[in-house]
Amino acid sequence: HEGLVSRQTVLRGQLELREYDRLSDEEGGVWVQPRTSKILSPGEIFETTDDRANVHWFGAHKDSIIFNLN
């Protein structure tokens, strides 16, 4: 998410999170470096900025709810 700052909080359930740092953009793709891979529980937070964890993937485990602030 280039040019975006966001913060997500797990409200219910569990969330599997994989974060990557964006190293560079090239025609047809982006170079990333793995940063984090973990399971988040209620109350845990993950944030994205231009400088840190700019690429992420997350998936819900069972019935999960997250609060997202961009």
Explain the layout of strands and helices:
Layout: E1 6-26, E2 29-40, E3 45-48, E4 55-69
Antiparallel strand pairs: 1-2, 1-3, 1-4
Describe this structure in words.
The structure is a single chain. Strands 1, 2, 3 and 4 form a 4-stranded antiparallel β-sheet that branches. It contains no helices and 4 strands. The chain is elongated, with a radius of gyration of 13 Å. The protein is mostly beta strands and 70 residues long. It has strands spanning 6-26, 29-40, 45-48, 55-69.
What coarse outline follows from CA principal-axis ratios?
elongated
User: Number of DSSP strands?
Assistant: 4
What's the number of helices? 0
Mean pLDDT: 88
Beta-sheet strand percentage?
over 45%
Give the helix proportion (percent range): under 10%
The value of Rg in angstroms is: 13 Å
Order of helices and strands: EEEE
Structural class: mainly beta
From the N-terminal CA to the C-terminal CA, the straight-line distance is 11 Å
Low-confidence runs of at least 5 consecutive residues:
none
The largest sheet, given as strand count, sense and whether it forms a barrel, is:
4 strands, antiparallel
